[in-house]
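Hi all, long-time lurker, first post. I run a small reading group and we've been trying to get comfortable going from sequence to structure in the token notation. Rather than ask abstract questions, I figured I'd post a concrete chain and ask someone more experienced to write out its structure so we can walk through it together at our next meeting. Sequence below, copied exactly:
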Amino acid sequence: YFKQESNGGSPMNVLETDRLILRELTLDDAEFILDLLNQPSFIQFIGDRGVRTLDDARGYLSKRLIESYERFSFGLYLTLLKQGEVPIGICGLVKRDSLDDIDIGFAFLPQFWSKGYAFESASAVLAYAKDALGIKRILGICTPDNQGSIRVLEKLGLKFEKMVKLSEDDVELKLFALDF
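-- Answer (accepted) --
Happy to help. Here is the structure in token form:
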């Protein structure tokens, strides 16, 4: 279930499920990140990260995603189908300055929605957070209109607690929580 191995210079696989591999992101994933972050659904439900070029994607990977592994020893992981190692999304843990607890995050390319991948990968991430990292409480945040993510969070056992803003000028988000 949990894999903590690195084979030479290749990225570290962190988790494995029946159908998926979750591994640390690298700068080589810039093309995929550029695609994912510019999906209309990502911009609508998660936000426009201003990533428009491969250089932007490498910068975003370096400053936002890869740095999290170094700072917190966790982060968002590239989620791949085991069969063919096709990248389909990201799923993992995020520590935001504006929230007291760590939250679970996930985003998938639309062609991979409604196939159980978000739930499968997020279930593995929750088990990892609890068992390997010793985290006692996990949050989930999403826009009030993001019914797909709300369904996944509720299926994972997170319960709606309150509305929050991550910053003064941000939109209100639904905050869900799960205590282990």
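A couple of things your group might point at:
Confidence is low (pLDDT under 50) at residues 1-8.
The chain is about 30% helix and 30% strand.
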